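Extended Data, panel c. Modelled sequence:
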Amino acid sequence: MALSCRYAARCCARQLRAGSAAATPIRASSSFLQQHHMSRRYNSTDAASANPKIAAIVDQISQLTLLETADLVASLKSRLNIPDLPVGGFAAAPAAAAAAPAAAPAEQEEEAPAAAEKTLFTVKLQSFDAAAKPKVIKEIKNLLGLSLVDSKKFVESAPKTMKESVPKDEAEKIVATMKELGAVVVME
């Protein structure tokens, strides 16, 4: 675990002040720094320091380089069968994992491709009501950030792709908004 820069600077300054009078070497023991650092941590629990086995593992991990840490994470994922989370799936994955019953690893591997769901969509303007044309133009202007003239040309050239690679919930909001205005929009 790395110490904060501010704390390290304070330790060095103390050592310089104490060492200049006695002409002793300037070096703080790592156990002193770790003990002092751990005592100043806010919102920490002492459970980690209560188990010496865990403390030894934490000390070993803290001395690893970045590449070694990446290898450790990859090894743990493969050994413990931990899947990689998609970018948008942080909240949904733990809830789904908690709700799913325990299954054999072979069954999970078979279900994984079937459970893969399309997450990014293309939103396409198909058509619109002639009476709702001004409202649709305004909404397209707001959604796409186009000028009024470009928005009018865009709407008149329907069917046309509005947005690509849009998350599902955002695409559904766009479709609902455009349907309220009298436009026909599809998610592909």
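Residues 5-22 form the longest helix (18 residues). This feature is highlighted in the accompanying rendering.
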